[in-house]
Amino acid sequence: MKQxxxxxxxxxxxxxxxxxxxxxxxxxxxxxxxxxVWTIAILSxxxxxxxxxxxxxxxxxxxxxxxxxxxxxESYHIVGDLAETIALVVxxxxxxxxxxxxxxxxxxxxxxxxxxxxxxxxxxxxxxxLDYYERFVFTKLITGGFRIGVSQKLMTRALSKATGxxxxxxxxxxxxxxxxxxxxxHDLILEEKENDYLSKPYPFFLAYAVEDDITDLGDINxxxxxxxxxxxxxxxxxxNDELFVWSRGEELVxxxxxxxxxxxxxxxxxxxxxxELLPYPKGEIGTFKDLQTRIGRKNISRxxxxxxxxxxxxxxxxxxxxxxxxxxxxxxxxxxxxxxxxETLNIGDAERWSLSEVEMSRSDTSYNELPxxxxxxxxxxxxxxxxxxxxxxxxxHSEGLMLKHNDSxxxxxxxxxxxxxxxxxxxxIDAVLxxxxxxxxxxxxxxxxxxxALWDTNEQGEKxxxxxxxxxxxxxxxxxxxxxxxxxxxxxxxxxxxxxxxPLHVFEIAFEGIAPSKRxxxxxxxxxxxxxxxxxxxxxxxxxxxxDLKALIPSGTKESLNK
Length: 563
What we know:
Elements: H1 2-12, H2 17-30, H3 33-43, H4 54-65, H5 69-79, H6 82-89, H7 101-111, H8 116-127, H9 132-143, H10 152-163, H11 167-174, H12 185-190, E1 205-206, E2 208-209, E3 223-229, E4 232-239, E5 242-247, E6 271-279, H13 288-292, H14 302-307, E7 310-320, E8 323-324, H15 330-345, H16 357-363, E9 372-374, H17 383-390, E10 398-405, E11 413-414, E12 419-423, E13 427-438, E14 447-457, E15 463-471, H18 477-489, E16 491-495, E17 498-501, E18 506-511, E19 513-516, E20 524-527, E21 530-534, H19 546-550, H20 555-562
Parallel strand pairs: 1-11, 2-12, 7-9
Antiparallel strand pairs: 3-10, 4-5, 4-6, 6-7, 7-8, 10-12, 13-14, 13-17, 13-18, 14-15, 16-17, 18-21, 19-20
Helix pairs in contact: 1-2, 1-9, 2-10, 4-5, 5-6, 6-9
């Protein structure tokens, strides 16, 4: 446990990815095999069930600390984290514990069915002998809320560095419902299996944003134009009658999209498709908010599959009949793709793909049998025509346009010259700062995470500020320090780590997308909100209203919401 607690202390003390990878890699080299397995499980969200509820934890921690319950609660509100609060108020010990991480976790699993008195005795026994950081980690494991800013991808990178096994192979090894209490490190990680290499994706080709005059790209006839769909960029791989779905973030997400199992036996083996995962509620393309209902779910229920079906909007093919064709031109790869789609879906000759998606879905019933769509390749006579199509992007739930040179090969990483993204300008609104939280890493001593609100009229006809978004980027370091100093002097109330502040300052907030949302008090969800500038020239009564924000929702989204 001491070794694992030191690891968590190191990870918690830095926001630099390289340092986190280094710390994890060193740990994986030094820790016992059993502790390695449990560490992988914890960092990939396979924690054991919580054996003690938080109410009992708070009561017992106050009792052991010999402080009244109100004082513990006040401390908790100030600290903002239960495990950290307990670690701080329980008297420190110099004894420490020699038990391993594995032993502690096995004890916690065995603790769940025991009586309250037995649970209390166990907690007192361990709280009393652990030092501050061991006690913090121990309590984190008990609560089940183990979030320390380490993604599974980052953990996989560190594990790759420690073992010499490629990241994509490790990602495949770690998928599924393996039990950390019943598998060895050798069986999970080190044992080589033939199937480990079946899932291997290709590096993604990424585009730079257009910054200069679009006409600098030359003759538009040399370019193919597609919409930049607002979903999850993915590779779908079919090899040896197995399906693998990789996100652009290099995460294996096959189990999140069970509808794609329909591809097996229909799409030929040796095929790798590059495309966008998009939600299709009510038979029409949805918003990223719809897709979020599928992201992060451990289990995808039948009702969720029916409510938010997902389709692959495919725009490139990287492997054809087991052969890497990335060195062929975009038009050549597109021909392979269109031919394959035509043959697979039995919809006639490839030229019919010039039809719109709507037209095709009406004329060919077989087209909708698979969760598979082709992203339309558009051609224009002038950049002015393309710009008009770009203006329609939000109505079509896209972020703008993708420009691909007809002779371009499929390259590795972000390259300038052949692929460009021509995104629409962000939406903006002027909002009032109402709440603040401390930042992370080098900004942990400053209030840099803000909540913003807009004006609305309540049932009594009174104007009030309604929260609509959070943002933590966009200001300079100097501006952050200025806002932080003001927040500390103008705090109205404290709610754990959150402070409410006097409504005074207006900020221009930019965001990429907007959609109706029943989950938000404002009734609106924004995509990637960020601070554009501090509007020192405006008073709070000049900030925008909630109606102004709702007016930015694309009409197509409003109509689909009312159906």
